[in-house]
Amino acid sequence: MKSLRDSGDGTQAAGDPPRGRHPRPSPRHAPPAAATERRIPGRRPGASRLQRWLGNSPLGLVLTAPYTAYVLVVFIIPFGVGVWMAFHDYFFTAPGVSVPHPFVGFDNFTEVLGEEKTQRAFANLGLFMAINIPLTVVLALALASALNAATHWRGFFRVAYYVPYVTASVATLAVWLFLFNGSGAVNNVLGPWAPDPSWLANKHLVMPLIAVYVTWKQLGFYILLYLAALQNVPKELHEAALTDGAGRWQAFRAVTLPAVRPVTSLVILLSIITAGQLFTEPFLLTGGGPSGASLTPALLVYQRGIEQGEPDAAAAIGLILVTGVLIIATVARRVMERD
Amino acid sequence: MARIARILRYATLGLGAIAALLPFYYMLIGALQKKRDTGLGGLLPKPSNLTLDNLAGIDDSFSLLGALANSLIMTVGVVVCTLVFGLLAGYALAILRFRGRGLVFALVLLVQAIPFQLLMIPLYVMVVRYFGLADSYAGMILPFAINSVAVLIFRQYFLQIPREIFDAARMDGASELRILRSVAVPLVRPAILTAMLVTFIGPWNEFLWPFLVTKDQGMQPLAVSLANFSQANSTFQANPMGAVLAGACVLAVPAVVLFLLFQRHFTSANLGSAIKG
């Protein structure tokens, strides 16, 4: 983030041509020059103060205007409205009807936090993260390390791991649904060891199953991230550790793990953000059931806001969720970047 | 020792590949089964039990081609908007100096940080109730029309182009718009391809937002139609599982095929530039 911004400003400052105030000498009488002057009216001396205020290329404002307008309409205003809703008594009315929406302070928050459903949704999310994040980091790192050291079939493995990531959740969830339902292939393989009640109807197994599904779906993306980092680890370091008598595992811990630490930090951060958005999986697999065992905060936002028509309560849940995700992400980052 | 390590390595990679691909095989074989066979033997193709009837069965419930067309319109709309807005903003941020440039760049980064869970309800209220865009392509496309990742990709590419090229074009009397169209855009063709591939997958696979804004079945993209079908109507089918899996194949195949064709462009370098912000 920082490096992006720095490099941009550096290039800009160093290489910007002295346009505007100092027109380049050009052959006066040649026809192209006349065309140039007509086309760039900003070069007239009268415009110089305004132009100095606007910068060398005010056109940039025009070119970025659609983007800025979109950001305002699709992100900034809804964000503000969402926060506003959470602190007011807001409900749907017929279009054009004006009703008061009184300020209620933290009432919406205390209301939703006091409900068992909300507590369960957040507890489920905690369980999801506790399974999904370690599993994601270990599997992605293990497969990326193996792939980095492999000499044959690298392209095939890379593509194979990435295919679940590019496929629609709706499509892959359908397969998981039929693999893991009561008479599905998984239970047929397990035979007498099949869980009872079965996976999707089992309140202890449904959330772990969703956590494994999301790990499976996202893994290819994280493997590619790790692969890029591993390719930048100098081979000599690893070899030096081995010649010094370190075992493979020791060499991995002493050389590879510290080298990929920034990526691990990023993978954890992205996993936390993905976890906060968990909606499609519980919605399509179980609808949040059995009895709330796979309810997630994002699903609850949908149920409260749109199914039950309580957008203020939904906005409060959304705000709690976002704050929680932000806190967990900050703590995780601190822990990762310590020492 | 080294040999054991190698065997272990390929065993790990092989197991990973099987775990990644087995559900897709099951998707395909399940879609082709005449009668549902969930036993272990059902994993093997039996010529007597193979059929394409499931596709026809799903088409009876909702128009498969219509849903595909809706998915395509939404996806193309998103990709075109992303490219146009992304190119304009990326070019301006990388090449032009203007007041507010820092602010616009800050917005680009901020957009990536705002989570959709918080936007979902207000955006739904605005788009459906105030703009009246329910059951319309505009309503489906709107929240995805700008993509900060694309802006960052384009900006990064434009920064790599030597500035002398743009200066030379200015000396020759080209206007900025002309430079953008005839000089800059052709130079960043690889970035355009990358941005297209990165943004194509999102709207094609998206479920939640089109599910919220489309209630009219004739407007629903395939992901939404299929999800509704698998939840409600599939019990009327001769082989409900086969019908849903057949629909899953139709939804999955375009994205997977495009990925296989262009997988060289899905390098970690591109992903890296995509998420650095």
From TrEMBL, chain A:
GO terms for biological process: transmembrane transport. InterPro entries: ABC_transporter_permease, MetI-like, MetI-like_sf. Coiled coil: none annotated. Keywords: Cell membrane, Membrane, Transmembrane, Transmembrane helix, Transport. PROSITE patterns: ABC_TM1. Residues 122-332 form the ABC transmembrane type-1 domain. It is a multi-pass membrane protein. It is found in: Cell membrane. Its main location: membrane. GO terms for cellular component: plasma membrane. Residues 1-48 are annotated as: Disordered. Signal peptide: none annotated. The chain crosses the membrane at residues 59-87, 125-147, 159-179, 205-228, 259-279, 313-332. Gene3D superfamilies: MetI-like (1.10.3720.10). Belongs to the binding-protein-dependent transport system permease family. This is ABC transporter permease. It comes from Streptomyces antimycoticus.
